[in-house]
Automatic annotation (TrEMBL), chains A, B:
The keyword Cell membrane does not apply. Belongs to the Fur family. GO terms for molecular function: DNA-binding transcription factor activity; transcription cis-regulatory region binding; zinc ion binding. It comes from Anaerovibrio lipolyticus DSM 3074. Zn(2+) binds at residues 118, 121, 158, 161. Gene3D superfamilies: 3.30.1490.190, Winged helix-like DNA-binding domain superfamily/Winged helix DNA-binding domain (1.10.10.10). The lineage of its organism: Bacteria, Bacillati, Bacillota, Negativicutes, Selenomonadales. This is Fur family transcriptional regulator, ferric uptake regulator.
Amino acid sequence: MLITKFWHAGDIEMRDGFSIEELKKRLQNSRYKLTHQRQDVLEVFLNSTGEHLSAEEVHRTLRDKGYDIGLATVYRTLELMCSPEMNILQKMEFGEKRARYELKKIEENGHQHHHLICKKCDKVIEFSEDMLEGLEQKIAETCNFNIIDHQVLFYGYCQECAKKLEN
Amino acid sequence: MLITKFWHAGDIEMRDGFSIEELKKRLQNSRYKLTHQRQDVLEVFLNSTGEHLSAEEVHRTLRDKGYDIGLATVYRTLELMCSPEMNILQKMEFGEKRARYELKKIEENGHQHHHLICKKCDKVIEFSEDMLEGLEQKIAETCNFNIIDHQVLFYGYCQECAKKLEN
DNA sequence: GTTGCTGCAAAGCTTTTGCATTAGG
DNA sequence: CCTAATGCAAAAGCTTTGCAGCAAC
């Protein structure tokens, strides 16, 4: 999966704030153990450049590096890191059959970013935009729904594929 | 899956515009055949009250009615009806492993509706809201991306589950 | 009569689970 | 030590596919 990054002007600054130390702290808070497998999985994300990784890709990356880890452990670790308790990874589904994960990056305004997905080549373009400003609260009030997370997906054609389709 | 409907004031009026005649017309335009299986699948959606149906639910509904149809055919039919050519159904993924489908309902303003998904009981609440007004075009221009569809998902806790979690 | 469609069963993929073994605290 | 975590392999789902027979046009 090709990932093209696009940050809207004014929303560029981000903070990840994740490290092995932070992982250790959060694990201890919940009486989980700091295994080397969990460290290894986190490091894959810390070393990746914002890619949306699938469980199998994380597993293969570690195996290729010579680390010995089972796929089941990768799945269990990903789930743990996505839990509200740990809150380290974000799980996403782009309409493929496999799920993808990325570090939970919080922008200054507290919003996640959103995704443009090309229907032809599956390229994922990220964008950051404050259009949801105030909307969450409005929905929460009107629908009596306590929002803790959201995901916005736009489907369409990227520039390259739009050109190809014209021909 | 429990579906609670909520239509924001002012966005209530909708038009479906689907019928067997319409199906026939669209099939013929693309040299597809009007089989009774395809009619039957469409009728399940026409008779349903806005539910988000999975392939297996469509299959079971038809089997229960005494119609004889294979699950593979249901899948093939659903895929066909989701294609841009047919443009009759909308495929959605709510983070379950199975996909769900519903009639492509277009609101007066041309927007689809959006979903609130309870993290605890999986209830899906629909809401309609014009907050994306102008945003699509803005994104299209800034990102050079030709948007043809979108899906907005909010995750959180519905009123009932929020209460239970307090205890 | 052609060509596409269906049904069945098998295969494919991703993800989950049971259980004996290992390792963190 | 004690409990949680791991690895493996098997199972579980959902979805897709190959192919022979059937139905639409």
